[in-house]
Design brief:
Two copies of one chain form a homodimer. Chain A has 342 residues and is of the alpha/beta class. Chain A is built from 14 helices and twelve strands. In chain A, helix 9 links the parallel strand 7 and strand 8. In chain A, helix 3 crosses helix 8, helix 5 runs parallel beside helix 6 and helix 8 packs across helix 9. Chain A is globular.
């Protein structure tokens, strides 16, 4: 069972090598939302996303034998680059199983950090089927994208930093894919709330809210029904939240510490990306803009000062351009509701 | 004659209301350039550009009578918004003479800060002809975009902040339009170099470099010949540097304190904007990316750690999209060399 201590230990572990990312604010945003909004800029984290916190925290705790055998994971997104960089920093060989049609930029970035990329065709096989023989042959340690205690503890360090950077914040909102960021941060947020030195405003009850795209609303459905729901390859532009379901470790954390999960439309996600570009000069990927989308669209109306995690900035130039010039196509008509996981 | 004291006084004046902008760094950039590079993020300044430093410093020093008469200026760019915001903060009425075909977003932003915008057709009249009767009627004080001591002193505060944020930097590079930023920063950089508390690395000689687009190379020509040259409406994408000539105040400052002015191609400016987007998650306007363009293209090869001013982030979404997706058209064939000002 993950505890606050795991997260504070993780923070000590990552502090020497990762970025203590800044918090940005905007008078315009505060006025529109009606309360102070603190944006935690994980787009300025190494590899351009919070994911490296969890990856580094996990790899740094491997024993000498495990390090020798190397690390294996599957991801087409930020977790791939995160594992690759963590491996390079710790001198551990890494192998990433990645769909063969993943964006070229992601593959090259991952290889650029020194990882071996093993492509596979998702129509012909699964990532697990590709990963298994590699694991058996090399003995490599599997470090999954979110359902892993050390990964979750690493992601929770985001909330610890916000506590110091925005001591007046009462609420915390993060995007939710597999729930590593939301679960880790929710635990940290709730359990540091009455910490010594807490400001008087903290008399208010702390609130944690998760956000996901309406097109990928498995987490909300799971949260509301108490049963993990699953969704296959949801057609949202927020590619970081296309994970099929919450994890066996992240779901109970979310059930215990999260107050609500809200959803936002594709259009509101694009609007938020554009707002962050125009008004704040920040490059944020669609998944990273979910919290701002929830505030600007009214999907969540905070009762007090709120911190929002901008989870990453890795968006390819063509997609970003299509959001800015309005040519991006939304695929709302392809929505498939989530179903209970069997 | 402007002195370091004017700049330190300006800093005290602006500190309570403007942003002390951050410095960002990138391992990739350091490796490519071969020395540490410190990027001063004026895209995160209020109104999205350094211009508000000079505007506020000028308006804050107006006497009660002048404040009552209001302030007048001409600009289609960041100076317009800067004067408008400074006016709002100081409760001074502002009027901006602006070409009627200025981007709608700029006009709305300027009006949003409470300024009155007076459009004119540059094919039929000049901004001076439009401004003169307004000044005569209202008695409004003209605060020009760069050739004004208080404006120059305000822009120089950028260099003072960098001194503290990047104490190891030996060189400083800024974009050059009318020379307010370059001149003010050059003076501050040179005259604080041997300040008490300077680090040992400062035994090296300080260097200041200006950058402008090759398509708008009037400053370089002026600098090299000792005679102010002029260029009319140069066809560069770096619209902040389309000013026709250096000023009577900025030119001598630049002659005295600047070591070199280098130029960069349109393609290298676009490449720099894209680099800042992809690798650093920063929204920077083309003029603001000139320094990074000079470093990545080799137009300037620094001998030691260098600070580079990212002067602003106000670029309209369509232009930014066209840079990202490569559809932007460069107008190199329309280049007209600068001629001596008569």
């Amino acid at each position: 069972m993950i505890t606050l201590r795991d997260i504070t230990e993780a923070r000590k572990r990552i502090a020497p090598v990762l970025n203590d990312t800044p918090v940005h604010t905007s008078r315009t945003l505060d006025e529109r939302v009606g309360v102070p909004v603190y944006l935690k800029c994980e787009n300025f984290q190494r590899v351009g996303a919070f994911k490296v916190r969890g990856a580094y925290n996990a790899l740094a705790q491997l024993g000498p034998d495990e390090r020798k055998r190397g690390v294996l994971t599957y991801s087409s997104g930020n977790h791939a680059q995160a594992i690759a960089l963590a491996g390079r920093l710790l001198d551990i060989e890494t192998t990433i199983v990645m769909p063969h049609d993943a964006p070229d930029s992601k593959r090259r970035a991952t290889e650029g950090y020194g990882a071996r990329v093993v492509p596979f065709d998702p129509r012909q096989t699964t990532r697990e089927e590709v990963a298994r023989p590699i694991a058996e042959e090399t003995g490599a340690v599997l470090v999954p994208p979110f359902d892993h205690e050390h990964v979750i503890a690493g992601q929770g360090t985001v909330a610890l930093e916000i506590r110091e950077q925005a001591p007046l914040a009462v609420e915390l909102m993060t995007p939710c894919g597999g729930g590593g960021l939301l679960g880790g941060c929710a635990l940290a947020w709730k359990e540091t709330y009455d910490a010594p030195g807490a400001t008087p405003s903290r008399a208010a009850r702390p609130v944690v809210v998760g956000v996901e795209p309406a097109l990928a609303d498995d987490a909300r459905r799971s949260f509301e029904t108490g049963v993990i729901h699953t969704i296959r390859n949801p057609p949202t532009i927020a590619d970081g939240t296309r994970t099929p379901f919450l994890g066996d470790l992240t779901f109970p954390l979310i059930q215990k510490h999260v107050d609500a999960i809200v959803t936002v439309s594709e259009q509101s996600i694009a609007d938020a990306v554009r707002f962050l570009f125009e008004r704040m000069k920040l490059v944020v990927e669609p998944s990273g803009a979910l919290g701002v989308a929830a505030l600007l669209s009214g999907a969540h109306e905070p009762a007090g000062p709120i911190a929002v995690v901008l989870s990453g900035g890795n968006v390819d130039p063509a997609t970003f351009a299509s959001i800015l010039d309005g040519t991006i196509r939304f695929r709302d008509s392809e929505y498939q509701p989530p179903v209970p996981r069997v």
